[in-house]
Amino acid sequence: MSGINKIVLAYSGGLDTSAIIPWLKEHYDAEIIAFVADVGQERDDLEGIEQKAIASGATKCIVKDLREEFVKEYVYPTLKTGAVYEGTYLLGTSMARPVIAKAMVEAALAEGADAISHGCTGKGNDQVRFEGAVAALAPQLKVIAPWRLWDMRSREDLLSYLETRNIPCKATLKKIYSRDANAWHISTEGGELESTWNEPSEAVWQWTVPAEQAPDQPEYVKLTVAQGEVVAVNDQPLSPHQILMTLNERAGKHGVGRIDITENRMVGMKSRGCYETPGGTVMVAALRAVEELVLDRPTRAWREKLGAEFSHLVYDGRWFTPLCKAILASANAIAEDLDGEVVLKMYKGQVTAVQKKSPNSLYSEDFATFGADEVYDQSHAEGFIRLYTLASRIRAMKEQHQAIGGDHTHG
Fold it and tell me: Which listed residue (38, 114, 126, 339) is catalytic?
């Protein structure tokens, strides 16, 4: 690519991006600026990261704290839609990509950069998510994806590349797993997980204890929900990020939030991963409990359709699209009455809503009771059922008439 004088690289400090900085310098006559997005990953991953980027050849390293924005502007809206990808995955990695990409684009424009670069491989989903965001937000920026350009294919290649250039890196050949962490979840791939016949060892799990080792006594937590958002834990108002951190710690001790799935990537292949979303799993249970009280049947069915559609939208990296705005607008409308309190029981890997109430609840003991009441006349059910089954009765009568007519013809 010609005309490139400054490149902003999405930098993690890991092996891949440590190698990308010198590779970019060798192939482009350009200044390299490392951009680090703090979305709540492990604190060790951020320690000394600016010095590491400079030592690799970057002229500057920008570290942006996106934790509150990530949870408030991306996680909470997604929760309102009820999005769960392929029935299990709570979209931890997927939701973080648009907030990172948006901040990186803003940094690139502020720095006067001509291009952005990333360390996504050519096999994964993230390349589509990052580049889709750039296309929507700043299509004038060029995109450089080294994994699709260079001839290195393994950790050995990358380590050798850095060694020959005397660039320090803590990575070794002993790395077993590939992990991605943020405030919402941590994902683990590789190692024994590459065979779907292998049960994950305890070395896979980072945030949650095994259910067998969880406390023998359950823990209860009360969440306050206002317009589809969790706003307080045990009556203590907290920010979205603070709520998530509190629930991550409490639910993780009880082994809540583990999943082991083989998912369909958007590029066409399947991949297996183990995901831990302890606090998020508790939040989802609380929101579903309030929905059960407040939403009528057709509205609940519509919300479920929104959730299914939105799960694919987020997974496929289409956050900055008109469809995203439309679905979120509908979800916000549905969530206007989602107010209430829910008490959840965390025990041995499970979370259950055991108490729930809402000022907007449609549930009425008077209507639901099996005893005598004055609000529901059971004799009315007969007329309702006759109308409800009208199409079935007409079809059956028609089939019977045709059968009789057929007998006369053959007779």
Answer: 126
| Enclosing H/E stretch for 260 | strand 258-264
**Can you give the pLDDT of all 411 residues of the chain as single tens digits?**
668 999 999 999 988 999 999 999 999 999 999 999 999 998 888 999 999 999 999 999 999 999 999 999 999 999 999 999 999 999 999 999 999 999 999 999 999 999 999 999 888 899 999 999 999 999 999 999 999 999 998 888 999 999 999 888 777 777 789 899 999 999 999 999 999 999 999 999 999 999 999 999 999 999 999 999 999 999 999 999 999 999 999 999 999 999 999 999 998 999 999 999 999 999 999 999 999 999 999 999 999 999 999 999 999 999 999 999 999 999 999 999 999 999 999 999 999 999 999 999 999 876 666 555 666 788 889 999 999 999 999 999 999 998 887 655 454
SS3 state at 388: helix
Is 45 catalytic? The answer is no
* Cβ pair 246, 222 in contact under 8 A: no
The catalytic position among 178, 201, 239, 364 is: 178
CA-to-CA distance for 161 and 322, rounded, in angstroms?
43
List, in order, residues 6 or more apart from 59 with CB less than 8 Å away.
31, 32, 33
Q: Which residue is catalytic, options 97, 129, 179, 318?
A: 97
Strands 350-357 and 229-233: unpaired
16 is catalytic: yes
Q: How many residues does the chain have?
A: 411
How far CA 112 is from CA of 25, 54, 108, in Å, comes to 18, 19, 6
- Tell which residue, 262, 268, 323, has the closest CA to residue 128: 268
**Coil, strand or helix at 204:** coil
97 is catalytic: yes
Q: Looking at 12, 16, 56, 250, which residue is catalytic?
A: 16
User: Does the model's pTM come out above 0.90?
Assistant: yes
Sign, Cα dihedral of 372, 374, 380, 385: negative
Query: Which class for 390: exposed (0-12), middle (13-18), buried (19 or more C-beta within 10 A)?
Result: exposed
Q: Is 62 helix (H, G, I), strand (E, B) or coil?
A: strand
Question: Backbone phi, then psi, for 192, in 5-degree steps?
Answer: -65, -15
Distance CA 333, CA 204 (A): 40
